[in-house]
Design brief:
With 262 residues, this protein is α/β, with parallel strands linked by helices. It has helices spanning 4-13, 21-27, 31-41, 60-67, 79-89, 125-131, 153-160, 174-179, 199-210, 233-242, and strands at residues 50-54, 71-76, 95-99, 101-102, 107-113, 144-151, 165-168, 188-193, 214-219, 249-255.
Length: 262
Amino acid sequence: MGGHIGVIEALKADPAMSGLRRSLEAYYGDPAREAAMDAFYARFVRPGDLVFDVGAHVGDRLGSFRRLGARVVAVEPQPLCVRVLRALYSADERVTVIEAACGARPGRVRLQVNSANPTVSTASPHFVQAATGAGGWEGETWDAEIEVATTTLDRLIAAHGVPAFVKIDVEGFEEAVLAGLSRRLPALSFEFTTIARELAPRCLDRVTGLGFTRFNVALGDEMGLALPRWLPATEVAAYLRALPHEANSGDVYCAPEEPVTA
């Protein structure tokens, strides 16, 4: 993956990528962060596995999945982010980049774009409303709207196979993504935020109905689990409800049974 350094520098120097420069600087060039990410995801991803990266953004998680030896299907609706992913992985036959959003059904959806901070672009109007005036979200503006194609997790599975792990990070649209999945998988994660914290319990209900029984949480960008053991959905929902607003965001990890640490 070291060959990506030159590509990243070229992307950062491209005026067309000015909105993504902050993400490229934050998510690349930190070997300690990459090592921590690899160690964290190794409990879910092993060499030869298939991984779906839903909401791939500029591909830092994708990079980790590849370093762990996985084949990756990266789903991303933002054209600039797709340009980054293709610049990095066009020569990698074990990466498939799909320019689309993931949702409850195939079709089209309106994406609210935050040009200055594309990492929080979203297909959820409710998420934009929740962020307006919220502490920690001052100055965030969704200043453009584009129509993008949608696919579903079920369609991705039909086309590419059953993934060992699915990472879902779609800024308040996680419930719709999970609605497009009709089977239990070995493991998945979905993002939560404290500005729209009512979504996480609904997502937990959905995945529980699919057969997931054990859950844990990572807070913010931390590469570690916040809970000392994997818990039932009701206990994790209570934990999320009790988080202070300042916790801001994180990810819920879901498995049919407690994963064995790698």
